[in-house]
Amino acid sequence: MEINITRDEKNELEFKIDNPTVAEILRIYLNEEDSVKMVAWRKEHYSKPLSFKIETEGKSAKKVLSDAISKLQKDLEKYGDEFKKAVK
């Protein structure tokens, strides 16, 4: 998976990402954060990567993204453990 940051300011972060599944999961987790004013992604053309944008208020966009990724990782570990127990 490739990610290229195209804009990096305190309350705004834009990047290109080539995986729509990861982009949608990140969007969902970021929307749960109180300091996020806006988060969205769009695909200009099927052959190009997605554009992903985060706007925040009160926290830096990078910090909010980092927090959302940490929460996602914890949830994935929990779901993985539950799945392993279920298939034993």
Helix-strand blueprint:
Layout: E1 3-9, E2 12-17, H1 20-31, E3 36-42, E4 50-56, H2 61-86
Description:
Helix content is 43%, strand content 31%. By secondary structure, the protein is α+β, with helices and mostly antiparallel strands. The chain has a single domain (3-86), classed as Gyrase A, domain 2 (2-Layer Sandwich), CATH 3.30.1360. The chain has a 4-stranded antiparallel β-sheet, covered by helices on one side. Helix 1 packs across helix 2 (61-86). The termini are far apart.
Q: Which short descriptors sum up this protein?
A:
4-stranded antiparallel β-sheet, alpha+beta, Gyrase A, domain 2, 88 residues, 43% helix, globular
CATH class descriptor name = Alpha Beta
CATH topology: Gyrase A, domain 2
Outline type: globular
Mean pLDDT rating: 95
Summarize the structure in short:
The protein is an alpha+beta fold and 88 residues long.
